[in-house]
Amino acid sequence: SYEHGGKYDFERGTFNGTQVDRYGHVTLANDTFGFVASSNDSHLGAPMGTAVYYNSSLKLFEIFVANSQKHTITKFISTDEKPAIIEYVASYGVENETGSDEEHFNTPLGLTYDGTYLYVSDWQNNRIVKLYNQSSPIHKLTYMCQYGGTGVLNKPFDVAWSNGYLYISDAGNQRIVKLISEYAISRSARYQRRYA
Known about the structure:
Blueprint: E1 2-3, E2 6-7, E3 18-20, E4 26-28, E5 47-55, E6 60-67, E7 72-79, E8 87-92, E9 108-113, E10 117-122, E11 127-134, E12 140-148, E13 156-162, E14 165-170, E15 175-180, H1 181-195
Antiparallel strand pairs: 1-2, 3-4, 5-6, 6-7, 7-8, 9-10, 10-11, 11-12, 13-14, 14-15
């Protein structure tokens, strides 16, 4: 078995300074539950949703967190080189301030990432916000567009992406909404701007 380019030795139970925990997961030496790292960053405020993506070209994990109390999305990274460190690199939204424009959230809860775009369920604003994730040369999140609003979505609790589709748990309407992610979100935003 190979993990991030290293070889696991089943006879010794070691892997480049790591061991196997009681559940069979490869973990850091002297760790009994698979614990690798944590972050108590001041940018966090009631973190509710998390999306993680391994960026193989940069050899790092991109970790996105929805902060429902601070009304922001934060981005952290954890590199292959320093796996025990989770580092804050960017955020989007105005901290501790609610709103419904392009720069604000009102209780973001769930989020998902498709490798390029981050989709955020903005619960109190009844919408899904699409952000572009820039990873190099600097880390940055940029507003692209949104889907929903009152009468379309009602308290969207979470969002998931798979194979080109978005799945939204539209809690207030007691339903699951399935959208073609690229087409539905961008088309809806153009329609909303054109006829607003």
